[in-house]
């Protein structure tokens, strides 16, 4: 018998007219973890960044994540709709964030910060990359709490198959949000955190993040229900998979390149 999604109240705390949503709290947890773990890593002088750098990167990174995530969703998933009505891009309360866009926003922040502070892009990227998967983990937990981005139909015999009432069809589905949280979030964090505990060739940590996230996302997309307004596309792949393929290639190419440079 399939499980039923718990139907969490999306509002975690209400203070008069102010409502704090679980999804927002998940973002906040991700940012707090970045601050805490970043300052911990900054104590190791060979990494080349200071606690002040961590706080500055967090401040600007928040804007990169939110602006990049929102613009990425609008341009990658519904460009015609939002280009016809650009003011709707500002309606963030209606939902719509892209992990790929958020990553691009963070890359832009790192490029600008590296140039202004006299650091190299790879120096910052290697420092930041092992912490980013925790933010992805909390974001997917937020998706699960909201009962959104559910998975494709699963066998009713699957012990963890789950019915999402929001889908409105009563079909047992894969809880793909939890797959993503575990694979591209927690497991990738553990691997990169351990692997980067000692000096590695410059750029290889960031390259492995891109490769690991790309592969994890590509695999989980086979269990995630495609957006209804897009469906599956060329070669039976989802939009998320097509967006992830370049990331896999970039990660693999960057890893080989940086190893050779080293």
Give a short synopsis of this structure:
Pfam families: LGT (PF01790). The protein has 262 residues and is mainly alpha-helical.
Description:
With 262 residues, the chain is mainly α. The chain has one domain. 59% of the residues lie in helices and 6% in strands. The chain has helices at residues 22-42, 51-76, 79-84, 99-117, 121-128, 132-146, 176-195, 204-220, 239-261, and strands at residues 3-4, 11-15, 18-21, 162-163, 172-173. The strands form two sheets. Strands 1-4-5 form a three-stranded mixed beta sheet, with no helix packed on it. The chain has a two-stranded antiparallel sheet with strand order 2-3. Helix 6 (132-146) packs antiparallel against helix 7 (176-195). The mean pLDDT is 91.
Q: Rg to the nearest angstrom?
A: 19 Å
Runs in which pLDDT lies below 50 for 5 or more consecutive residues are none
Which outline best applies?
globular
Query: How do the strands line up in the largest sheet?
Result: 1-4-5
Q: How far is it from the N-terminal to the C-terminal residue, by CA?
A: 54 Å
Number of E-type strands:
5
User: What's the mean pLDDT score?
Assistant: 91
The biggest beta sheet, please? 3 strands, mixed
The percent range for helix content is 55-70%
Continuous helix count: 9
Structural class: mainly alpha
The H-and-E topology, N to C, reads as EEEHHHHHHEEHHH
Q: In terms of topology, how is this protein built?
A:
Layout: E1 3-4, E2 11-15, E3 18-21, H1 22-42, H2 51-76, H3 79-84, H4 99-117, H5 121-128, H6 132-146, E4 162-163, E5 172-173, H7 176-195, H8 204-220, H9 239-261
Parallel strand pairs: 1-4
Antiparallel strand pairs: 2-3, 4-5
Helix pairs in contact: 1-2, 1-6, 2-4, 4-5, 5-8, 6-7, 7-8, 8-9
């Amino acid at each position: 018998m399939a499980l039923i999604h718990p139907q969490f109240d999306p509002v975690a705390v209400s203070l008069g007219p102010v409502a704090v949503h679980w999804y927002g709290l998940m973002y906040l947890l991700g940012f707090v973890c970045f601050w805490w773990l970043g300052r911990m890593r900054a104590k190791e002088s060979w990494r080349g960044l200071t606690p002040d750098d961590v706080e500055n990167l967090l401040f600007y990174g928040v804007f990169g994540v939110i602006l990049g995530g929102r613009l990425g969703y609008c341009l990658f998933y519904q460009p015609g709709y939002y280009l016809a009505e650009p003011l709707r891009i500002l309606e963030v309360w209606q939902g719509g964030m892209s992990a790929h866009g958020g990553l691009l926003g963070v890359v832009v922040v790192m490029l600008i910060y590296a140039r202004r502070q006299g650091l190299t892009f790879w120096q910052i990227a290697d420092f930041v990359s092992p912490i980013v998967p925790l933010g992805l983990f909390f974001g997917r937990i937020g998706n699960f709490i909201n009962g959104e981005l559910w998975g494709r139909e699963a066998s009713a015999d699957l012990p963890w198959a789950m019915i999402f009432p929001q889908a409105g069809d009563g079909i047992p589905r894969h809880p793909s949000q939890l797959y993503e949280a575990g694979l591209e979030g927690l497991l990738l964090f553990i691997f990169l955190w351990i692997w980067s505990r000692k000096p590695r060739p410059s750029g290889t940590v960031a390259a492995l993040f891109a490769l690991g996230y790309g592969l994890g996302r590509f695999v989980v997309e086979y269990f995630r229900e495609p957006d209804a307004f897009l469906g599956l596309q060329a070669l039976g792949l989802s939009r998320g998979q097509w967006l992830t393929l370049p990331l896999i290639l970039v990660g693999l190419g960057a890893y080989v390149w940086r190893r050779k440079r080293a």
